Amino acid sequence: MPDVRLASPQGKWILLTTVLGSSMAMLDSTVVNVALPRIGRDLDASLAALQWTVNAYMVTLAGLILLGGSLGDRYGRRKIFVLGVVWFAAASLLCGLAPTSGILIAARALQGIGGALLTPGSLALIQASFHPDDRSRAVGLWSGFGGIGAAVGPFLGGWLVAGPGWRWVFLLNVPVALLCAPIALRHVPESADQRAHGRFDVLGAALGALSLALLTYALIEARGGSLAVALTGAAGLAAAVAFVHVERHRPDPMLPPDIFASRQFTAVNLVTLCVYAAFGGFFFLTALQLQVVAGYSPLAAGTALLPTTALMLLFSSRSGALADRTGPRLPLTVGPLLCAVALLLMLRVGEGADYLTDVLPALLVMGAGMVTLVAPLTATVLASVDASRAGLASGINNAAARAAGLVAVAALPLLAGMGAEAYRSPTAFDAAFDRAMPICAGVLVLGSVLAFALVRRPAPGCRRPECRTHGSVTAPPLEANRPG
Fold first, then answer.
1. Is residue 112 exposed (0-12), middle (13-18) or buried (19+ Cβ within 10 Å)?
2. Residue 443 main-chain phi, psi, to 5 deg
3. What angle do CA 352, 161, 316 make, to 5 degrees?
């Protein structure tokens, strides 16, 4: 049984290293959006290259995050966590030194692999190290500090872009890793799941990531309408079919199909796909809209986004407690509708937009909607499966959210008629943004309708999430299996 106490020096070191590790990945998922206009200008990148700067990271992270958790259970959680930290830092260094957009995109894909190793590992280390009496408090502190990191991410990114330059958005990860990895090796006990057995589903992970990559490429490049794009899209669909076939026939699949026998689990993942697709498109385009059209500096644009994550950080735990009393159906119905209203309010944000009257009201409503729905969504995912599969269910839900976000970043500019050089023209970008926000709002309304029609109150006494404070806008919080 784990026996490290939170008040002990070792307990504090464990908490520090897990917060540092998870913060690297969490910050990178939010700060890069703010840096995109400067990256495009400095590297002479097209809109498609900027989409890939975001999506190359998300493809490998979403496709491999379940495998990353399994590797830690088998080979040692500390070992895989440290490997992820070092890998992530090395890829970040390559991002920061990238001379071309192509090298930057390749480095971002490598970053996603590191993120898939360290993201599930940070929480698993806490679950496996701390005494049961201290575990919930340790998880609460870990998620709270992580939420603070997510909240300051856009501000930090804006400050770096406006000051030292966008490359420091990535280079900053290197000194953090140099601090994090030695602390982990010295102070974190190694642990593994003795029940882990069988072969790793490497084929399933590869097919999943390949399918996402091919479909993303087809959506981003679809403006050209070439035969190569059509063939790539067909290959992506074929890889998706092959992925499903492999998962149905493997003895130890990465994504067991039978987990979707739970209608509640299937329903809440459909809601997740809708809401996080809209969130992904919204935050990608808004960071550009504020700078390209409204004329905000990177620092002002990053600071402008603070209210949404701040509201989540302050009120997500209270939202979860309220949903425990009312059931998840109401917040999962109302939350997406609030977010849809926020996206329609963003139509007021144009050239010379005033922050207090045009931008802030939309972001406050957006934050209220996210506060309302994110914590109940996570709780419903955990409550819809057997307690022994809670970690798997959370991982699937987290991967689904990230996959939805990357598809939205790929598809939304196409659906909104955004040209390859649109971000260089305030007029063209503003017109496309005004077409994109109603599309995102419609997807949120669809999520609300699905929640109202399909989500039901879970059985009494089901598992509740330990990560009650959450500030990330890219994916719901992860939960790990709890050791005895």
1. buried
2. -65, -40
3. 80
Regions of the chain short of the pLDDT cut 50: none
For 261-272, letters b (16+ CB in 10 Å) and e give: ebebbebbbbbb
Per-residue confidence (pLDDT) for residue 433, from 0 to 100:
96
The amino acid at 16:
L
Q: Which architecture characterizes domain 9-187+252-454 according to CATH?
A: Up-down Bundle (1.20)
Integer Cα distance of 126 and 131 in angstroms: 9
Identify which of 309, 292, 299 has the alpha carbon closest to the alpha carbon of residue 353. Answer: 292
Q: Would you say 311 and 366 are in contact if contact means Cβ atoms under 8 Å apart?
A: no
Rg (CA), the chain: 21
Phi, psi of 314 (to 5 degrees): -80, -35
Judge contact between 469 and 143, C-beta under 8 A.
Answer: yes
Give the domain ranges of the chain.
Answer: 9-187+252-454, 201-251
Joined together, the tokens standing for residue 74 give 């088998």
Could you give the CA distance from residue 36 to residue 51 in angstroms, rounded to a whole number?
A: 9
User: Rounded to 10 degrees, what is the CA torsion of 342, 153, 393, 138?
Assistant: -120
Tokens of 317: 């735990």
10 Å CB burial of residue 462 (0-12, 13-18, 19+) is: middle
- Write a three-state SS string for the chain: CCCECCCCHHHHHHHHHHHHHHHHHHHHHHHHHHHHHHHHHHHCCCHHHHHHHHHHHHHHHHHHHHHHHHHHHHHCHHHHHHHHHHHHHHHHHHHHHCCCHHHHHHHHHHHHHHHHHHHHHHHHHHHHHECHHHHHHHHHHHHHHHHHHHHHHHHHHHHHHHCCCCHHHHHCHHHHHHHHHHHHHHHCCCCCCCCCCCCCCHHHHHHHHHHHHHHHHHHHCHHHCCHHHHHHHHHHHHHHHHHHHHHHHCCCCCCCHHHHHCHHHHHHHHHHHHHHHHHHHHHHHHHHHHHHHCCCCHHHHHHHCHHHHHHHHHHHHHHHHHHHHHCCHHHHHHHHHHHHHHHHHHHHCCCCCCHHHHHHHHHHHHHHHHHHHHHHHHHHHHHCCCHHHHHHHHHHHHHHHHHHHHHHHHHHHHHCCCCCCHHHCHHHHHHHHHHHHHHHHHHHHHHHHHHHHHCCCCCCCCCCCCCCCCCCCCCCCCCCCCCC
Residue 287 CA to residue 302 CA, distance in Å, equals 8
Query: What pLDDT, on the 0 to 100 scale, is given for residue 81?
Result: 93
Among 477, 481, 480, 482, CA closest to 467: 477
What contacts 234, CB < 8 A, 6 or more positions away?
A: none
pLDDT recorded at residue 484:
53
In this prediction the pTM is 0.91
